[in-house]
Every structure is written in structure tokens, then in C-alpha cells.
Design a protein that fits this description.
By secondary structure, the protein is an alpha/beta fold. It contains 18 helices and 13 strands. A hairpin with a 4-residue loop joins strand 7 and strand 8. The structure holds zinc ion (ZN).
């Protein structure tokens, strides 16, 4: 009896969506969606599928809730600070719809058992950093799971769908379908409605007859020859690439931008040159003084940090004044002129720090706003919904084509971008065992710093087992087996390495056998 009542309640809940052409609530009720990242986008997407009555949700997030999340992440409330996002989201979603099963993981996506991915029909990426996206992209390609990727920065955002090879999803060409419909519409128009159109058609017909005669003679024989050749091989050579898969995320990001931590580490080798540098330096000074990094949730630590940062900012202002106004010149200046100079410098470097600014700088935070988050997350949900039907052999609409859309909230504009599948893509292409990395190094960096920078970028390599060469000239910069080529203190500048040059790191000995990656292409940017 209770079971029947539950069925009635459910069917009432989902009554309106069942009116959509091609809808089948069973596809939703038996479906499993994985949402990786339960931040601004993830909260919205999880809410969408919970309300639609998804059978199962899998939520992944390794973060805890912070106060600054409360302006966007709609499943969290004041008082939730410090609790795991995935866990709290699961509780709130259960309140919205008790019939949804929810698994949650307070864990890195790379550490999840593959069975969790296996269980999911569609994977939704709602992440905030490149590395996690690249790893998820790789896993989805390997597991042949369709992925919907999205992100926002300030007033802009994007959504990309990734359909891996052999996922069994037919990916129809939207443009071709539209063309067919327009053609059909043109058959219906009358001369009464569009006289000029028909007159033009007649004239074109005359010209075309002429063109046809030329084509028949000179052009068509060549086209026919190529068409025949391509048709012979299309099904095995081109069809899998063109019809049933999209480019992947890594196709768009062949060289991930340098790690923020690296830029910060590099900044600290010199004197602070702007407001951000002062705060980064203050964090290091704080750690030296108190033996730990400042905890921005503790008010007295925030105050101590602010004091150090403020001191650095004042030193910066002083330094800039001294650099610009020579000592002998200073004596000839009036008090008012000096005050004007100092006011000018204060304007350039900004007023005193506020707490949020320090938090944004230290956390490498990206501008974010709820309006854009909800637009982007809704597009992700909608694409994931269509893919869920498709995975189950049903159709309520084709996935978006082209598979990438950019939204600009300043102009209210959507742009679809034709993106290309790269043959040399490190995730979905033919190349295996290579990796592209960009590193940032100080001007006076030495060979040893390359290994340090690689470690900060999460590619820790043993200098005793890796060789560094110039791929163009084959010159060896570092070879641990040759004492003459094993000086970590030799400056990159003395090796004539310039900004944006590429060096190659290759494994030797044990690393050659054990490392999954057989070649790193490292782009060096000086700062
Ligand atoms: Zn790719």
C-alpha cells in the first residue's frame, strides 16, 4: 500500500516534465549522474537532477565549506562552515527529494575506485582548476564515459561536452539537421508571397545551366574520382573520428598554464613589486615567525598577517619613492611636493588591505558570481540530461553541436566554437607517454630549479634519473651519469635558454622502465 502511495506521489511530482516529447521518467529514475566538484556549478547541477528525480547521484568534492561560498553555493547555509561540501550537499538534496539515492565522497577524484566511474551514466565536471579537469578528462576517456565540462570566470563561462571514442553514443550533426529543415521550408513558399525570390531563381537557373555545362566537362570527373576514393575508406578511416566522438578537454588545453604556486614561489625570490606580492611575502614571513601558515578562519592570525603585509606594502611604497626621486633632488623639493609624490604612489599601489583581498590573493581565487554560475550550470545540466537519454538508447534531442559554447555575460552573448580534435592530443590522440608542462622560473634560475619547479607542478622527478636536453640542438644540459654535465648551479641564462624555450626531460635507468611518461616537453617562462 505504502509503495503505491509513493508511486502516486512520484508521478505527481514529475507530471510536467513527462509532457516533454520523448520523455521517459524511467530513464531518469534508473540513471546515475556523477558530479565532480560541489561548488557554485555543482550545487546547481545536483539540485537540477535531484528535482528531476534522478535515480542516483554521486557527489565528489575534497573541500570544506567557507564563508565566501555562501554567496553562490545554494545548498549551503551560514553555520555550515568547515563541514565537507559533498556531505552537506547530500543532506540538503535529500530534503528536496527523499527518493533520490546519493553517494558522496570527501575525496580527490583521482583516488576514487574505478567502479564509481563505471556506475555513472554521465560525468559532470564542475571543477575550479585545470589539473583536476585534465585528470577527469583522462579518466572519462579511458572509461568511455561522456563528460560535460563547465567553468566560469567573472562574467564569462563555458560549457563543453566530451564524447569519447567507442562510448556508443551517436553524435548527430546539428547543422546538417537544421539545413534539412530550412530546405523543406523553402519547398513550401509560393510565387505570390516571394515574387523576387522566384525571379532570381529563374535567372540563377539560366546561369547554372551554363555553369553545369562547364562543370560536367572539367570539374565533375575530378570530384567523382575523390568521392569514390573517400567512400571506399570512410567507414573505417573517418567515420569513428567524425561521427561518434568529439575533441576532448585536453585537445583545448595542450599546454596547461603554469601552476599558481610556481608563480608565487618564483615571486618570492625577488622583492615584492605589487600588492599581491606583498601578501604572498607576508604569508611566508608569518610562517617563519610562527612556525605555521596563517589560518584565515582565525581572526587574530588574520590581524597578524595584515600587519606584516601592511609593512611590506609600506616598504614597497618607500622603495618606489626612493627609486623615482633621487636623494639630491629630494632636498630641493617642498614638503607639499613630497606629499604629492607619496599620495601618487599610494594611488598606484592602492589603499590598505582588507581581509577579503588577502584571502583572494593567497587562495588564488577567481572572480565568481551567482548569475553566471546558474547560467553555465543549467547548460551543463541540460546537456547531461540529453546524454543520459542517449546513453540509454533514447533521444530527447541531440547534444550541442559544435560541442563548445562560450557565454559572455557583459554582452549577453553566446558563441558556439568549432573546436578541433588534435591528432597529437596527449589524452585522446595517438601519442602516448608524453607530457607538456609550462614552468615559471626567476631570471637567475639554475638547472636545479627546473627539477624544483617540476616538483611544485606535481611532476616530482629524481634528478639522478632524468636527463635535460635541448630538443632542437640536442645539447645536453643535465645528465646525472656524466659528472661534467651534472652542475645544478649552472645558470639557465649561461646556457642561452630564453623565455618560452622548450627543454626535454627524459628518463634514464630505473625511471626509463618505471615512469609512465617517457618525455616531458617543458616550456620555460622567465619572470
Ligand atoms: Zn584530446
Amino acid at each position: 500500500m505504502t509503495e503505491k502511495i509513493e508511486d502516486i506521489v512520484k508521478s505527481r511530482m514529475y507530471a510536467r516534465q513527462q509532457l516533454i516529447d520523448g520523455w521517459d521518467q524511467d530513464v531518469i529514475s534508473n540513471g546515475c549522474m556523477m558530479i565532480v566538484g560541489v561548488g557554485a556549478l555543482g550545487c546547481e547541477i545536483a539540485k537540477d537532477f535531484t528535482l528531476m528525480g534522478i535515480g542516483k547521484l554521486i557527489l565528489i568534492d575534497l573541500d570544506t565549506i567557507e564563508t565566501s561560498n555562501l554567496s553562490r553555493q545554494m545548498l549551503f547555509r551560514p553555520g555550515d562552515e568547515g563541514r565537507p561540501k559533498a556531505e552537506v550537499a547530500a543532506e540538503r538534496l535529500k530534503d528536496m527529494n527523499p527518493y533520490v539515492n546519493i553517494d558522496f565522497y570527501f575525496e580527490k577524484l583521482q583516488k576514487l575506485p574505478m567502479s564509481v566511474y563505471e556506475e555513472s551514466d554521465v560525468v559532470i565536471a564542475a571543477l575550479d582548476n585545470f589539473n583536476a579537469r585534465l585528470d577527469l578528462n583522462k579518466i572519462c576517456l579511458r572509461m568511455k564515459k561522456p563528460m560535460v565540462e563547465g567553468g566560469t570566470v567573472g562574467f564569462e563561462g563555458h560549457v563543453q561536452i566530451v564524447i569519447p571514442e567507442d562510448s556508443g553514443i551517436a553524435y548527430k550533426k546539428r547543422d546538417r539537421e537544421i539545413e534539412n529543415l530550412v530546405e523543406a521550408r523553402l519547398w513550401d513558399i509560393t510565387e505570390m508571397e516571394f515574387p523576387e525570390y522566384f525571379k532570381a531563381e529563374a535567372r540563377i537557373e539560366e546561369l547554372e545551366e551554363e555553369i553545369e555545362r562547364i562543370k560536367e566537362k572539367k570539374i565533375n570527373p575530378v570530384i567523382k574520382k575523390f568521392r569514390k576514393e573517400i567512400e571506399m575508406v570512410f567507414d573505417w578511416k573517418y567515420a569513428p573520428e567524425i561521427l561518434d566522438q568529439t575533441p576532448c578537454y585536453r585537445c583545448l588545453v595542450p599546454i596547461p598554464p603554469a601552476d599558481d604556486k610556481l608563480v608565487a614561489a618564483c615571486t618570492l625570490k625577488g622583492l615584492p613589486r605589487n600588492r599581491n606580492h606583498c601578501v604572498i611575502k607576508a604569508e611566508v614571513e608569518f610562517e617563519k615567525k610562527y612556525g605555521h601558515k596563517p589560518d584565515l578562519n582565525l581572526n587574530d592570525e588574520v590581524l597578524k598577517l595584515k600587519e606584516i603585509a601592511q609593512g611590506e606594502l609600506e616598504k614597497l611604497r618607500e622603495r618606489v619613492f626612493n627609486e623615482n626621486v633621487a636623494e639630491e633632488e629630494r632636498e630641493s623639493l617642498t614638503e607639499k611636493e613630497i606629499a604629492d609624490w607619496k599620495a601618487n604612489i599610494n594611488d598606484t599601489f592602492g589603499s590598505d588591505y582588507k581581509f577579503e583581498e588577502m584571502e583572494n590573493i593567497l587562495g588564488n581565487k577567481i572572480a565568481a558570481i551567482q548569475t553566471v554560475s546558474s547560467i553555465i550550470s543549467s547548460i551543463e545540466s541540460q546537456e547531461a540530461l540529453k546524454l543520459l537519454f542517449r546513453v540509454n538508447g533514447r533521444n530527447i534531442g541531440a547534444p550541442m553541436e559544435p560541442p563548445y559554447v562560450n557565454y559572455n555575460g557583459v554582452y549577453g552573448q553566446f558563441d558556439h566554437l568549432h573546436i578541433l580534435k588534435r591528432d597529437d592530443c596527449l589524452a585522446c590522440g595517438e601519442i602516448e607517454g608524453e607530457e607538456n608542462v609550462q614552468i615559471v622560473v626567476p631570471f637567475d634560475a639554475d638547472v636545479g630549479y627546473i627539477f624544483k619547479a617540476m616538483e611544485i607542478s606535481e611532476h616530482k622527478l629524481d634528478p639522478e634519473l632524468w636527463m635535460i636536453t635541448n630538443p632542437m640542438t640536442k645539447e645536453i644540459y643535465w645528465n646525472p651519469y656524466m659528472p661534467s654535465l651534472k652542475d645544478p648551479n649552472i645558470k639557465l641564462s649561461s646556457l642561452k635558454i630564453k623565455s618560452n624555450d622548450i627543454v626535454t626531460l627524459s628518463p634514464l635507468g630505473k625511471a626509463l622502465a618505471e615512469s609512465e611518461i617517457k618525455k616531458y616537453n617543458v616550456i620555460i617562462a622567465f619572470m
